[in-house]
Amino acid sequence: MVFKRAIPPVVWPLTAQAGVFVLGAFGWLALTRGLYASALVCGLGAITLAWLGLSHSALVLGRDLLKRTQPGAIFTAELSRRRLQVLLDQTPSPLLLQPDNGQLIAVNRAARNLFDVSYALPVAARRALLGDTSGAAPLGLAGMASQIKWKGQTFAVHIAEMEEADHLSHLAVLTDISADVRAAEANALRDLLKVLNHELMNALTPVASMSKSALDLLGDDTPESRAAAVKALERVVARTEGLTDFINAYRALTRLPPPVIRSCGLNLWLEVLCESFAAQWGDKGVRFETDIADSDLSLMMDEDQMWLGVSNLLNNGAQAALEKPDPRVRLRLKRDGEAVLFEIEDSGKGIPAENADQVFMPFYSTKATGTGVGLSLAKQIIAGHGSALVLASPQAHRPDPLGGACFHFQIRIG
């Protein structure tokens, strides 16, 4: 019976070292006696033994090192993976991963709870999120909408690309913005109601005043008073119809409707504008001054929208002028080539330089009771006519300045 025993790892290096020593001694002895061939053989033998010893040591050392480190490396990798999964499960935002096989994988607990799955989303859920995936080229996460709704919640979608060894994966992060969307909708509704209330009050105040004047005139029962009453009622009807059309369009689109620009007589339009301003601000002591070089012109504009825009500028000027004694508002019109330059100026305190860039912002107001829609709406109306509403600088040269704010814009002659 033959017994095979493994040679202990330490024996090979010691044996090799002893053999190298013995062969070296014999080689030196042969060399000193002139036996060069024997010395060469001893030298080659010593080199061979040394190489075998080193090779065996390296092999044993590598094997031992691998045995000691491999289990630890596997354990460390598994520990890192579990830690990452725990962190992902603590993330409140649902995470979806789409590898190259087209599946949608719920990466963390939030995603699994949202879609009621343990790993991959079913086909119905994928179609609801990505569209019809039955075609030859199904949609991926990269084509997902920027916002989605799921189970009554609204999520913002952020897509990230992840490059792997041989393919590209996509990761979707879903952020719950339901509360923000509801707050934005509430703010938009409140702002819309502010605008509608502002415009209704500005338009209905002169209508109510002219209606009362017409009623008083009818009580006189004279041909002159009846004619004046009929004229006042015609103005009331015209303003009411224009306001009704504007409000209906604004309510339907929740924005300013596009202007219907056509040639309008400036003379009659100014007459209605002046009567409306006098009816609203005359009894409050605001003087209305006009400086009109040529009113026998026709302008290319939407008559009702421009009336609202200029009325807003005049009303803002009147409110500002009331802050100082002898309140005045001035409307100046002068021809500038193929256009008419409008200037609306008041005798108020003016607009501070630090507020000059903000006065046209929607719902920004420097007055405690202001809604902040007058100037922004006027700017939008004038922009729709291809012009720009500009706040003149305090240093701008104007004849007989009133000392307050001055706005100007141009309208093309038709």
Please describe what this structure looks like:
The chain contains nine helices and twelve strands. With 414 residues, it is α+β, with helices and mostly antiparallel strands. It folds into three domains: 11-86; 91-133 and 141-176, Beta-Lactamase, CATH 3.30.450; 182-412, Histidine kinase-like ATPase, C-terminal domain (Heat Shock Protein 90), CATH 3.30.565. Strands 2-1-5-4-3 form a five-stranded antiparallel sheet. A five-stranded mixed sheet has the order 7-9-10-12-11, with helices on one face.
User: CATH homologous superfamily of the largest domain, by name?
Assistant: Histidine kinase-like ATPase, C-terminal domain
Domains (count)? 3
Percent strand: 15-25%
- Give the overall form: elongated
Task: Note the total helix count.
Answer: 9
Number of strands: 12
CATH topology of the largest domain: Heat Shock Protein 90
Order of helices and strands: HHEEHHEEEHHEHEEHEEHEE
- Assembly state: single chain
Structural class: alpha+beta
Describe the main β-sheet briefly.
Answer: 5 strands, antiparallel
Task: Name the CATH class of the largest domain.
Answer: Alpha Beta
From the coordinates shown, what is the CATH architecture of the largest domain? Answer: 2-Layer Sandwich
Average pLDDT, rounded to a whole number, is 77
Poorly predicted tracts of residues = 1-7
Radius of gyration, Cα only, in angstroms? 45 Å
**Distance between the terminal alpha carbons, to the nearest Å?**
124 Å
Measured as a percent range, the helix fraction is: 40-55%
Strand order of the largest sheet: 2-1-5-4-3
